[in-house]
Structures
1.
Amino acid sequence: MAAAQPPAPPAEVVVPDHGLYEQPVPVKGRGVFPARAIPRGALVIKFVGPVYTRDTCPEFSEAIQVGVNAWMHSSGGLDDLVNHACDPNCGLWQVGPDTFLIALRDIPAGEELSFDYSTSMVDEPWSLEGCGCGTALCRGVVANFLDMPADHQARYAAAGALPEHVWVTAKARGVRLVRAGTLDAVAAVPANPADAAE
Ligand SMILES: [Zn+2]
């Protein structure tokens, strides 16, 4: 009897070179900027670093939740330095086990990159009161995604810019998120399958 074929590996994902660099920013310390304009839907940067469980993560404020029980710690690279905003120009995008930032809109050269830290956070022990992102949609707090106002949740869900563990946890807790569409330019990138199984 022939053995079952192993599943095909995911297509290799290449992050374009946007000429990313860091520079000091007020209040937040350091930030990440692109030397070249980034079109909406382009992958921006890949998160890298050691991955811990809830029980072993040494410092949650230095980590990003990347799975139901997985936190990726700082790497020393530029991916550590992308600041939070409640109305960010980038969002989280997962391909297989890897977590990236993707451009949620066209980003001009020299505009600071940001993403909404809350879009990775479910059951997160860490939160931040007094968000100073200064955007018009500022919620004033960086905390768990499922505690975010529904219209903010819906915006990220519609873009598909949420990691797998957020879809899974939302569904398990009866929070219905609808992926209204994906970003046009990344239609070829596999999207998270969790919400398609309803
Ligand atoms: Zn804010």
Note: Residues 20-193 form a domain with the Beta-clip-like fold (CATH 2.170.270.10).
2.
Amino acid sequence: MEALTNRLKPVDRRKMNFWERIYLPAVVKGLSITLKHFFKKKVTINYPEEVRPFSPVFRGLQILNRDEEGRENCTACGLCALACPAEAITMECAERKPGEEHLYREEKYAAKYEINMLRCIFCGLCEEACPKDAVYLSETFAPANYQRKGFIYGKKDLLIPDPKTDPEGFAKAKGSRIKHPQGHGNEH
Ligand code: SF4
Ligand code: SF4
């Protein structure tokens, strides 16, 4: 039979000698490998107590941005959804009412904004497409979940904390990648 790879190894069917029959040399050989690894640098880390530094271009969980006055940046223009190759984003637009100027930066806002994390491939195209600096990919993971519906992230999961009430949470959510709180998406 023709081999598909060059890793083919014929089975050794010759009779075992004395040392092979008592398995002792094989056990010692196995233990020596274990012992060698005791003195090697550990490749594992104690997550979540220890966290590996992310690459500067790491793209994690999306975050819906606010301006420094705590108003939502998103105008529900739909460009992020249009740019998304995985069709992971859905939204519903609403008009800002008088008296809501402190909540939404523009006349229109996303009454509903959802990202399906099971579809998302973290490509970052939504961030690139957004003209309002409203969505960006942060330095955190989407946490594990046992249910599919747990991966549909709505506004309450995606919106960053209000800088007026929680400045620490706001700064933490922004992380080190986002330098400009206002402006345009491509400035990141
Ligand atoms: S996140 Fe940006 S691109 Fe997406 S709807 Fe909001 S403003 Fe438009
Ligand atoms: S990161 Fe890519 S796949 Fe995920 S929501 Fe944005 S555009 Fe879609």
Note: The CA atoms of residues 18 and 106 lie 84 Å apart.
3.
Amino acid sequence: MLTDLETKIKILKHNFRILNSDDDEVSAHIYTILSHDILFFLQTEAAKNQPIWDQESADFIELFNFLYNHKIIGLITEGEAKALYFLAQAMKNNQEPIIEIGAHLGFSTIFLAKHKLVQTIDNQFNDKLREADPLWRIFFANFYNDEFLFADIRDHETKLEICRRHWRLAGVFANIKTICGEAKEAAALMPRASMVFYDADHDYKSVHDLDAYFSKIVSHGVIAIHDFNEKTPGVIGAVYDFYLRNKVKLDGPFLIDSLIWFRVK
Ligand SMILES: C[S@@+](CC[C@H](N)C(=O)[O-])C[C@H]1O[C@@H](n2cnc3c(N)ncnc32)[C@H](O)[C@@H]1O
């Protein structure tokens, strides 16, 4: 006997398969209708798996405040930054680097790179921010309540130049390697990894492509995905499907704000 949620998921997946092939928008709409249930399900699972959250955090707070004071900003919350920082720290004794997909201005990269070597991939590294996203000023203003409208971003720099300036200031420059390219294609070039952090395209198909990266993660490593929330139903759907496909190989999910992660057994 299927539970109510399982029935809904079955319908959802059935419709999604049909619509996904040529119309991402319609399928996204279906996910929006049903994603609350999936979200609730994964959140309930996540609640059973509380991460160790009371870790000594003076170093993290110092780093976070330093970046804030220098107007180095990104698209993750303080809680998410803290989770990335401690997850990366937990991988310290592991030889394999961390792979980040989606660096933007290099903010999340800094928290990953404090204790580990990070290989980060972004398809807009060679673009200037204004060209990559003409609405960025408005976007930043909304996201950061005007306070960050004058974030330390210089229009003439490419995203990679902005990243490098940020990484030098934060003292993590030597720990970061970059690839400018498409996530899907870059996967083949990647070494084995202790952790993969995904924060690039947010549609179902792109997140689904994460499987190529998942296969790189060593035992006891971590896979973390950002924007697991109702605003990006494609992420919820793809993460949920990922979870169903790989359940036996995963511990978790764990969740803080809209960062969801699993430990690889
Ligand atoms: C949401 S931003 C990343 C924010 C960053 N993690 C932070 O918190 O500061 C997404 C980034 O992913 C990059 N991106 C989007 N689609 C991509 C793709 N298919 N391959 C590689 N990078 C991609 C974009 O250029 C953008 O810089």
Note: The radius of gyration is 18 Å.
4.
Amino acid sequence: MIKRKRLLMHVGPVDIYDEVLYAGLKHNVGFSSEEFVQAFQFCLKETRKLFRVDNSYQPFIIPGSGTSAMESVTSFLGKDNKVLVASNGVFGDRWVNIFKRYPLKVDYLGSEVGDYVSVDKIEEKVRKEKYDLVTLTHVETSTGVRQPIEETVKRIRDYVDLIVVDGVSSVGAEEVRAKDWGVDIYLTASQKAIGAPPGLGILVASEKAMESIKGDSVAGYYLDLRNWLPVMRNMEDGKGSYFATPPVHTIFMLAQAFKLIQEEGLDNRIKRHEKVAKVIRAGIESMGLRLVAKRPESYSNTVTGVILNKVRAEEVLKEIVNEGVELAPGVHPALQGRYVRIGHMGWVTPNDAVVTISAVERTLRKLGEDINVGSGVRSAQAFILDG
Ligand SMILES: Cc1ncc(COP(=O)(O)O)c(C=O)c1O
């Protein structure tokens, strides 16, 4: 009996290179040690590049996960501020759950399942009412749907104070241009397309956003970015600094992931993600299955939601592990049990995509789904060779 090797095609945490994991196996490194400060400094500088911003944006790397980065956005809000949540699914909705805990006024604009939020409707809403802050989700991980951020921001920029984009499932894999697009706060997490372990919320904030942080905010204590700001500034200056114990080992791993991103080049990384996503979709569609994302222009480079015809999602997820691949469950309540998600973020390759498609074919055939076995793999191969 041999131990099964498993390909993790999940939505996060994703497959992580050993050299990234090993970078965290450090001992005797305090949070003010030269080694650690250098790693932190490097991560802050690379964070700016990742979001394509210059020194006018302040980067933050804070403990927690994507949700901690989301909740830290309360640092930019004062009592009774008015917020619009434009949500394309489960993670967009999370903003409401966060903001409801604070003395804020929250409006909500949703989308149909599998679609993004209508840009016309967002524009109409912000023209009618003045909002202090609007949230958008770049790639909605529950469905794999991508919001056209550049276009959306262009249409609403003049009417709202601050625009926040959740890029947890996009940064490092999709085109992201925080400054050029006029996004004030763009956030992500370590465990997705950056390809590091979970444990860090990562964001950049514009000058305008940093101005608004000066007054009183509704933020709690731990996620008040005013407490983290001196740490970020000192670390970037190469000086040790403390507000609360940083996850030292995870920062070393993040630094290693950033080194590998640097070696690959961000543009190449985005292109690789795009190619892998196309190979996956070519395979899934020619098998005769439908995608959750309705419009081709909203297909993402990072997550593909696959609707099952007959079999239940739980059975597929259980069985496909025996075929050597792990996928992610569907989490959108409207499609519960009827779809699975293929995550393709981090260090994925077209070869991983073909392996995944072949495992999906075998699994579905075993479970009695009516699919064309072999045609998915054939289309995936053809796409890799001929585009
Ligand atoms: C788009 C999006 N936003 C926010 C989150 C929350 O991040 P975390 O689970 O790291 O707290 C996730 C997690 O998957 C996500 O996909």
Note: The mean pLDDT is 96.
